[in-house]
Write a structure and sequence with these properties.
This protein is an alpha+beta fold. It is about 25% helix and about 35% strand.
Length: about 160
């Protein structure tokens, strides 16, 4: 078991009930960038568990998880920085994820969530989970903050 998974399990958030505080954060994330779906995903060895979701359709909202074959957040927790993708259909790795074909995810913005003490190999804190927002349309950067932020746009570029 990796240190990241150990820390994730120590939070006792996997398979836990929804909580208003997490739901407020998820709703805020989606609202701020204008995304129709926002999630707090906890990624273990085989799945992503949705600690919170906003705008997620059925049956996924009730199931509160997907296998990693759907997950973009899996890439966020293994990387050192946020992952922002304007069009996953054109991304060399993410285009094969089932979320693209089955859920219609096109745009994605994922930010790692860090838990204190989750350091690995001296590289500093490691993400244990991610907060993400998705959209069925492409995103383009906001002019006010460059490529760090994204907003949905209608139509393709």
């Amino acid at each position: 078991m990796t240190r990241r998974i150990e820390v994730l399990r120590s939070t006792r958030l996997l398979d836990s009930a929804p909580e208003p505080a997490f739901d407020r954060l998820t709703r805020l994330a989606g609202t701020l960038i204008g995304a129709p779906v926002a999630l707090i995903s906890l990624v273990d060895e085989t799945r992503q568990f949705f600690k919170s979701s906003w705008g997620l359709g059925e049956p996924w909202a009730s199931r509160r998880e997907t296998p990693l074959s759907y997950s973009f957040c899996d890439h966020v927790v293994h990387g050192p920085a946020p992952l922002i993708v304007a069009d996953a259909r054109e991304h060399p790795v993410l285009n094969a994820r089932l979320a693209v074909a089955e859920l219609g995810v096109i745009a994605y913005a994922g930010v790692p969530l860090i838990v204190d003490g989750a350091a690995i190999r001296g590289r500093g804190p490691r993400p244990t989970s991610g907060c993400c927002a998705t959209s069925p349309t492409r995103w383009c950067p906001r002019s006010s903050c460059g490529s760090r932020c994204a907003r949905p746009t209608s139509g393709a570029r």
